[in-house]
Structure formats: structure tokens, C-alpha cells
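Researcher: Sequence recovery benchmark, item below. Answer with residues only.
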């Protein structure tokens, strides 16, 4: 039985490793130099290659310009060996850029949680408040967070704080709606028992409603974090300065595809870790009736 469980756990990992090997193999074949002899380079082209840090005639044939897996590996090792270096405004390590982005996401997300969860409680417990606020929520919810950016830049006049504001806007709606739904669907029997025992409203909110609605609230928080991590990349591309989004845009302007691909991988890995963290929290508060 134990052996069967180990085999079941290893099979997906082996299949994933096989798919990764196939993907890298196809990538390697697609970036091999073409068979024909390369045309002789002009002095200007040779000088450009030297400026880009590439050896003239490297590979012995025409190259597509897309990085090979070996070049990608060297770039990953180079970035990870010095993740926190700081050589000025446009040359910072990937670790520093990530810290800037995570700081903005964390602050905007925390402010959104402080607003959305208490307000969601009120909306979920009061049908009158729900009907009064629902038209505003339905109008504001579909607006793209980036549409708020010009207004934020005009009023706040600070690009970094504007990025935090955009994270707040995109995080608040899933948390608000899920909290209101979770609170409004708490079983009436549990509320009636609390009322019969004359439990005070504040104690009822923390000891009856919050534990019952916690899985739904965590679902909203998990969705909000996913959206916030998506939006911060686009926001930092617009506002510039620092952050993983700005790193991607800056490396694109430098025509460094290896750095752009590396940043994309980092964004994916960090997003996966954030989602795993909320999945663990969600599992911890889930219950079976």
C-alpha cells in the first residue's frame, strides 16, 4: 500500500521532468545555427556584436537571435550569484527588484484587507447595507485597475504610491465580495443558537461567524493576491523606477531577451509560491460539517 502511494506521488513528478526535458530539447533545436554559411559581417555589425558582448562568428552559422538554453542557464547563474547588487537606478539585482515589487504588493494588499474584510462583514450581516452598496460595487468592480493609474498619478503625484493604490484597487473587490458572501451564508442554526445563549454581537462575530466564513474569506484573499501579482508587473512597467515589472521593460529596451525570459520565470515562481502559501492557509481554516 505504501509502495503504491509512493509510485502515485512519483509518477506526476517524472512526467513533469519528461515534459521539461522535451521542452528544453525543442528549444535547443530551434535555436541551433542554420546550416548555411553565414554572410560576412560588416565592420559596423562586428562593432555592434562587441558592444552587445557577443563574439563575432559565434556558432559558425546564422543565429535567430533567440537565446539558447545554455545562454539562459548562464544568465540564471549570473543573476542568482549576486541577487542584491546595486549599481545605480537602472542596474539593480533581481533580488532587490523583487523586494520592491513584493513591498508594494504587500502594502496595497494589506490596506485592501483592512478595508474589504470589515466592510464585507457589514454587508454580509445587513441586507439593507448590501442593497445600498451593491450598485456602487457592480459599477466599480469591472474597471481595470490600470485605468485608475492616470488619476492616481495626477492626485497622488508619486509613482510608487500610485502603484500601491492600484494594488489596493485590484485587491479589494474579491476580498469584499467573498467576505460578504461567506458571512451571509453562515448557517442560521448556528446564529440562532448564539442568539439563544445571548452571545454578544462582537463575540458572535469573532467566535461564530468568522470561523464559519473563514474558508470563503481566504478564497477571496487568494484570488486577490493572484490578481495583485499580475497587476504589479504591468503597473511597474508604466510607472518605472524599480520593481520586477520595470526590470522586464528595462531589459527589453536593452534588447536582452535572456534577462526578460529570466524575469518571466522569476515572476512565475514567486506567483506560484504566493498561491501555495494561501492554499496552505485556506486548508488550515477549512472544515467539514
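Model:
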Amino acid at each position: 500500500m505504501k509502495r503504491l502511494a509512493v509510485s502515485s506521488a512519483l509518477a506526476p513528478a517524472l512526467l513533469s521532468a519528461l515534459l521539461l526535458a522535451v521542452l528544453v530539447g525543442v528549444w535547443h533545436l530551434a535555436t541551433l545555427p542554420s546550416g548555411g554559411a553565414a554572410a560576412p559581417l560588416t565592420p559596423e555589425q562586428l562593432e555592434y556584436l562587441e558592444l552587445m558582448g557577443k563574439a563575432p562568428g559565434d556558432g559558425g552559422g546564422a543565429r535567430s537571435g533567440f537565446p539558447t538554453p545554455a545562454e539562459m542557464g548562464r544568465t540564471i547563474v549570473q543573476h542568482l550569484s549576486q541577487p542584491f547588487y546595486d549599481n545605480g537606478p537602472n542596474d539593480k539585482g533581481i533580488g532587490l527588484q523583487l523586494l520592491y515589487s513584493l513591498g508594494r504588493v504587500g502594502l496595497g494588499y494589506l490596506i485592501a484587507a483592512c478595508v474589504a474584510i470589515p466592510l464585507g462583514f457589514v454587508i454580509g450581516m445587513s441586507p439593507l447595507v448590501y442593497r445600498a452598496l451593491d450598485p456602487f460595487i457592480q459599477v466599480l468592480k469591472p474597471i481595470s485597475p490600470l485605468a485608475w493609474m492616470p488619476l492616481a498619478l495626477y492626485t497622488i503625484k508619486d509613482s510608487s504610491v500610485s502603484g500601491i493604490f492600484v494594488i489596493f484597487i485590484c485587491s479589494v473587490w474579491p476580498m469584499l465580495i467573498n467576505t460578504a458572501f461567506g458571512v451571509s451564508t453562515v448557517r442560521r442554526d448556528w446564529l440562532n443558537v448564539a442568539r439563544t445563549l445571548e452571545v454578544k454581537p462582537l463575540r458572535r462575530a469573532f467566535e461564530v461567524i468568522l470561523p464559519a466564513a473563514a474558508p470563503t474569506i481566504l478564497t477571496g484573499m487568494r484570488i486577490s493576491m493572484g490578481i495583485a501579482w499580475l497587476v504589479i508587473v504591468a503597473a511597474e512597467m508604466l510607472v518605472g523606477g524599480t520593481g520586477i515589472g520595470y526590470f522586464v521593460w528595462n531589459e527589453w529596451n536593452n534588447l536582452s531577451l535572456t534577462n526578460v525570459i529570466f524575469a518571466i520565470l522569476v515572476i512565475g515562481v514567486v506567483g506560484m509560491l504566493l498561491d501555495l502559501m494561501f492554499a496552505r492557509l485556506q486548508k488550515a481554516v477549512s472544515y467539514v460539517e
